[in-house]
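User: For my dataset I need records formatted as: sequence, then structure tokens, nothing else. Please produce one.
Assistant:
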Amino acid sequence: MPKQIILAAHFPGVNNTTVWSDPASGSQIDFASFVHLARTAERGLFDFFFLAEGLRLREQRGRIHDLDVVGRPDTLTVLAALAAVTTHLGLAGTLNATFREPYELARQLATLDHLSGGRAAWNVVTTSDAFTGENFRRGGFLDRSLRYERAAEFVRTARELWESWAVDAVAGDRDTGRYLATAEPGAFTYHGDQFDITGHFTVPRSPQLHPVILQAGDSPDGREFAAASADAIFSRHGTLDAGQEFYRDVKSRLARHGRDPDDLKIIPGVTVVLGDTDAEAHEKAHHIRRQQVSPQTALLLLEQLWNRDLSGYDPEGPLPATDPDISAEAISRGRAGMYPDPVATARQWRTLAEEKGLGIRDLIIEVTGRQSFIGTPQQVAEQMNHFVQSDAADGFILVPHLTPGGLDEFVDEVVPLLQERGVFRTEYTGTTLREHLGLGAARPVAPVAALR
């Protein structure tokens, strides 16, 4: 049997991947936009709907970065509202483990899992960015070396809280008037390096026991964290070869954590551009990318690597001859850790620009694009299927350039072709997100006391 393809829908904010100025683009905050994209995804039998998170408006050179504002309404509020207007679609939200507390977030996610009938998912992210942390207590600062340590302990703590209610803790015996079957429902005690909490969890065991855990880190620490703790990883590898290397690496880490390869799904973010012919689709994709990366956006994105004011450069001209300034304070705030070695990356970009004869704008278009599937519906269906069957991914998170109608064409024209190939469902056969993803039941964790 061929592998079944996982599909998810990403709701984009206002940034350099969206074309908010297009006449077909709608509101990024109106609830009707969220409903349209979610219902389109559910009509297409997608596995889940995905929301990113922005905790502070980004700045560049001391000004709000107008061309890349990742701001949106509160994630959990939107997902809870969508639970009422969908019936099968998973509901995944990015929620930062650096600035929240396990008891609070575990309650919120368990509640969403109950409200949705077992469709909740949490994309765990971390940050060592003190700029974002200024919005939170103690400045929210966490040393970079501790962020995954905290995240791993956060997930373990949340899992213990979710498991604190026994399966049969609620008796609900009307004859005897006894509601609880135990005198200590939801009792927990957690003592660790990051958290020290004791009490009773207020939410009974939810349909999935553990909401599905997603993770988006690509560093060695991020990969190890995903192998130990996540159910799926949101990767960014764009080519078939890079996807296969990432797939092999992450899957190979699972055994030392007592897990099987199918316990972790690899789901890169991708874009799709369709046309009646291959030439039309590529022409359309070229136009979209030049809308996404305007001349001003190209310079701003280049500044994030060079860490210099490049406003005087010609966006269609050559790259700066100077190297990035790694000694100065970062001019971009709220976007941390994009380029671990700026000087080496700049050299790679110069080489690419020379080989292909690219100016600044065309280079930025080249190096910032996601994996794209471009062509006729038949070509795109074949490309996506080849990617999955070749073990470069288990599925895809589709990132449309238009909100909210950016998935309509894909659902109408590509999904039926995937179904004809026998690699995508023709109906939902389960009720929970874990069932959609083929993950099986959540495995209870051992209490921390038993591990020491």
